[in-house]
Amino acid sequence: MRAPRLILPWVVWGVGAIAYAIAIINRSSLAALGPAAQDHFAIDATTLATFPVIQLIVYAGLQIPVGMLLDRLGPTTLILCGGLLMTVGQVLMATVHEVWLAVLARVLVGAGDACTFISVMRLLPEWFAVRQLPTVSQVTALTGQVGQLVSVTPLALLVGAAGWMPGFLGVASVGLLVTILAALVIRDRPGVGTAFERMTGRLGRRSRDARSLASAASGESTLMPPPATSMIEITQPAPTAAPRRAGFWSRFRRLLRIPGVRLAYWLHFTSPFASHAFLLLWGTPFLIGGVGLDAAAAGGLLSVMVVSSMAAGLLLGPLSSRFLERRVWIHFGITIAIMLTWTAVIVWPTTPPLWLLFVLVIVVPLGGPASMIAFEVTRSHTPVSFGGFATGVVNTGGFTSALLVILGIGLALDLQGAGSPEQYSLDAFRIAFAVQIPFWLLGLVYILVEQRRTKRWMDFHGRRLR
Ligand SMILES: N[C@@H](Cc1c[nH]cn1)C(=O)NCC(=O)O
Prior knowledge:
Number of helices: 21
Radius of gyration: 22 Å
Bound molecules: the ligand N[C@@H](Cc1c[nH]cn1)C(=O)NCC(=O)O
CATH architecture of the largest domain: Up-down Bundle
Low-confidence stretches: 218-223, 234-243
Number of strands: 0
Structural class: mainly alpha
CATH topology of the largest domain: Growth Hormone, Chain: A
Number of domains: 2
Mean pLDDT: 88
Oligomer: single chain
Helix content: over 70%
């Protein structure tokens, strides 16, 4: 009887993490299929580039609404909605030839993707002890990176061998299977049924057995439970009539009054954008059109990025849980290292040597795992009733900065007359990548400011980090 109860949190987490990996496969499914997509839809490079941008806008734009829904409907429902939206999106992608329908397909994929990560993150504190959370969160992100690897080579091979429609229908089918698995396995928290059990109105033995896990998990957090909702300042008088759910703006303002949430936002804003910009769009053009590498070498360096990010995740989880008080400084140090490495590449007097490019592709992706520290900070400072909302708000940080930097680099290339592959040059890329520097500086300054405010807030409320 004991073994299944101990295993259940890991089974729930495992299926959640696989759902996230599938979301990443869907998200990056066009990354290695640019030429195939251009052929299939008969589009130019500019139209192709709008696909990831639109998807990123949808993803970032939906984080806050999805976060609010998460607090009302729970993570299981949103993981299922996300899986279904992505499946429909990929079926559409597989079967249409019109560009506007392909854009609609990417919108659906972006919307489904937006539902997945923060829902899986919201599950974790319900199933794991506080001290395990940093490691489990990092391993969740690492599983997502496996999805990134799958979408680079195996998916391209599948589409190359089987064709566009079977390839994308294959991705949609795997997504549907994992969504069904999620309906059978994921529970919002111990003692609550799976989606399937809730639909049939019968709570299975495993779900009933898991009730005792709830008290075990909350027992540990009573040492320093999450802040109470009442700790968030309310400026308007409380209503005397029957309590109504606070509206969006009221909740948003209350959330942003917590300095720890603002700190988490800036942590997420500052560290991952360089990696996103490089992996999602500008890395390959820079390495081939700027540095002069061939496609195989450029692809190899991009794969090193994914491996470096995964290895860092394994290290950073235990490290940030062991050095709780220092986790913001660990993040700060990593961001400075990323900024200095990029600055060295930008100011290098000749073509950057291969060893420097290796340092770049090892250091820049550390920003992804470092950004997971933002979710730890969010958890430490947010009342449970605001958990999904706060995670959504914080998760917009890195995606907003990535979007602005991706567009900024494109604009800087265009302004120099170097916006197309025939016109690319190393000097134009140097200037274009320098667009990142103000974003790092802005983020670092705000981290310092909000870290001081957070410390004062904690002292005032007599709180300790958890
Ligand atoms: N910054 C990422 C997480 C990450 C960890 N390692 C590499 N990336 C993040 O916030 N992800 C959210 C998502 O939806 O993927």
